[in-house]
Specification:
single chain, 222 residues, alpha+beta, Immunoglobulin-like, 9-stranded mixed sheet, 3-stranded antiparallel sheet, 2 helices, 16% helix, elongated
């Protein structure tokens, strides 16, 4: 019967070890990088609260591992920064329960740093991630980034948004139709929600300030 020479057997045995090591290394890179993940982004709840010269954003996202294997997600969150909207000076990122009770804090960030965290998921596990930031605004308008969700290549199952204006402020415009609701202590809330949401445009909104606020902004006299 024909058989491989002994040297060839040793070569293929050694080659099998190399192939196995390469496969193990590739698996580790796949798992630990978080760039290839079975985690899905399926829900978001956003509150945007307008203050004088500031926009306060409360951000709650839901992620679920759809695999029977563990998974890693490397999560980076860009801010809508331009000439009139500098990067937030401070932000806070945390894992929370659905009712926003704290599970664990991640390290707080500073200006010019994009929130970024690596999340480990058990098979089938889901997590709520909370982001809170204050962003300066030099004009009566703001933006919340939505089109970044298209990178997930599938719609968001459920998304809800709320814009809260303080007493004396009025809504000027929104590129998504809003429903007005009464707020607390004279404030006004505007909301919209979507299912199977695959956004084609970011949410842009503007407001009219009381004369005293706009005068302070422009350096005039009320």
């Amino acid at each position: 019967m024909w058989s491989l020479p002994q040297a060839s057997k040793r070569f293929w045995a050694h080659g099998g070890d190399v192939i196995g090591a390469c496969a193990l290394a590739a698996s580790a890179i796949y798992f630990l990088s978080g760039r290839f993940t079975t985690v899905r982004f399926d829900q978001e709840r956003i509150d945007v609260e307008v203050k004088e010269g500031l926009i306060h954003v409360h951000w709650l996202y839901h992620y679920r591992n759809t695999s029977r294997l563990p998974a890693v997600l490397t999560l980076g969150i860009p801010f809508p920064v331009d000439h009139d909207h500098p990067a937030p000076e401070v932000w806070t990122l945390a894992e929370v329960h659905e009712d926003a009770r704290l599970v664990r804090d991640f390290a707080p960030g500073r200006q010019q740093e994009e929130p970024r965290v690596r999340l480990f998921f058990r098979p089938g596990e889901a997590k709520w991630i909370w982001l809170d930031y204050w962003q300066p605004t030099h004009g009566p308008e703001g933006c919340y980034l939505l089109t970044t969700a298209r990178a997930w290549r599938r719609p968001i199952t459920q998304a809800s948004f709320r814009l809260l204006l303080p007493p004396g402020y009025q809504l000027n415009a929104s590129n998504y139709p809003l429903t007005e609701l009464p707020g607390s202590q004279g404030s006004t809330a505007f909301t919209f929600s979507k299912t199977d949401f695959f956004p084609e445009q970011d949410w842009r909104f503007s407001w009219r300030e009381p004369r005293s606020v706009s005068s302070r902004r422009t350096g005039g006299v009320p």
